[in-house]
Design goal:
Rossmann fold; 17% strand; 392 residues; five-stranded parallel β-sheet; four-stranded parallel β-sheet; alpha/beta
């Protein structure tokens, strides 16, 4: 009996047809995420942004708030589709508020992570140390917190949206000498780039006006200031300027000033002035004292929303609001820069110099040719543990 080749051929054809249909069904099932009607979203490569923050040490209190604010801004941007469909991703490194660790962190971000932009540092010493590395690699370095005047024009790759301490030092000197008539100021300065920058700006203006400064220096590792404080107390100065890197260092000094039963009129820089809890704790010691901050505007809609969002997400008021507003703006400035010129450090750095009247939580931002934000500090007086704008 001859085999039925026609019938077997037809059966094989049917089998092949069903296999093709089955493969199409399975393929469609996988392509649509394994569930009918649910299309799988294409995953795009994230845009990696390096971040330098003092995660450990006395300055770590700044980093906690900054990291939270960065998260708020990044989550908002990514929820809106990221940057042309690509999500933002932050790679955060501990720069420990010193040049040595900032150098290592910046090298890692540039060489290993291959970032084109680094957000930071926060401390001025971090930014000063990271600038040569960023410059050599043609990576943009954008700080929302470093304020040393030594960073002005330091590199075409560095820029900041927090103002230089040249403004802070000058306005404090003007108030003390011109408004209050003080001719001699005792000053204790921590040996850091930020504190030195404040001192240089303050002393240049105060001495130009005709004033005298009696100065003592301390290292970051210092914990006993009795010798320096005794000398400064004996100088019988009109005011005592505590110029430190962090509120933690200021608090150690506050305690020993109290131990000496010394009650001078105290001046503090914005690093300490931004710590509302510390000011409230030492309200008696600081009563009538002054500080100068880059002030925030409670009527600014973006800033007001940020305050609400921060408390909602983290269950506490946003700390260091002067820095918080610029940290939030920094992430959105990065978004606008990449959308405008692409993910390229050299182009982003050049773009920063044409930023003018950019509307943010910290107000209108204009960056000068030297990389500095154009604007300045507001003098505040401390009364009953709170700050208010100083009025002549």
């Amino acid at each position: 009996m001859e085999p039925d080749t026609q019938g077997s051929g037809a059966g094989m054809a049917k089998t092949i047809t069903w296999l093709v249909v089955l493969l199409l069904i399975v393929g469609g099932f996988v392509a649509y995420g394994g569930k009918a009607g649910t299309k799988k979203v294409e995953e795009k490569t994230p845009i990696k942004i390096g971040v330098l923050l003092p995660l450990t040490g006395d300055a770590a209190s700044y980093a906690e708030g900054a990291r939270n604010i960065y998260k708020i801004a990044v989550d908002e941007i990514n929820a809106m589709g990221g940057i042309k469909g690509q999500p933002l991703e932050l790679i955060i490194e501990d720069a420990k508020c010193n040049g040595k660790d900032a150098t290592s962190a910046a090298q890692k971000l540039v060489s290993v992570d291959k970032v084109q932009l680094i957000l930071g540092g926060f401390c001025s010493g971090e930014s000063i140390a990271a600038t040569p590395i960023a410059t050599e690699a043609k990576v943009a370095l954008f700080s929302p917190g470093s304020s040393s005047p030594d960073l002005t024009g330091i590199s075409p790759y560095f820029f900041r949206n927090y103002p230089s301490d040249a403004s802070q030092g000058r306005v404090l000197a003007d108030v003390l000498y011109t408004d209050k008539g003080f001719k001699k100021v005792a000053l204790i300065q921590e040996q850091t780039d930020y504190a030195l920058g404040v001192y240089k700006a303050f002393s240049a203006r105060f001495e130009e006006l005709g004033g005298t400064i009696v100065k003592e220096e301390v290292t970051t590792a210092s914990s006993d200031f009795r010798s320096q404080l005794t000398k400064l107390k004996a100088s019988k100065s009109d005011a005592f300027f505590i110029d430190t890197q962090t509120p933690a260092m200021s608090e150690r000094i506050f305690k020993q000033v109290q131990d000496l039963k010394w009650k001078p009129m105290i001046v503090i820089n914005d690093a300490t002035g931004g710590d509302v809890t510390l000011i409230a704790t030492y309200k008696d010691l600081l009563e009538g004292g002054i500080t100068a901050e880059f002030s925030s505007d409670p009527n600014n809609a973006k800033f007001a929303k940020l305050l609400v969002d921060y408390k909602t997400q983290f269950g506490a008021d946003m700390p260091y609001q002067a820095y918080g507003q610029t940290e939030y703006d920094a992430v959105y400035l990065i978004k606008d820069a990449i959308e405008a010129v692409g993910y390229n450090g050299e182009k982003i750095a050049a773009w920063s110099r044409i930023v003018k009247d950019w509307e943010g939580a910290s107000g209108k931002i204009t960056i000068g040719e030297n990389g500095d934000r154009i604007g300045g500090h507001t003098v505040e007086v401390i009364k009953a543990g709170k700050k208010e704008v100083y009025v002549k």
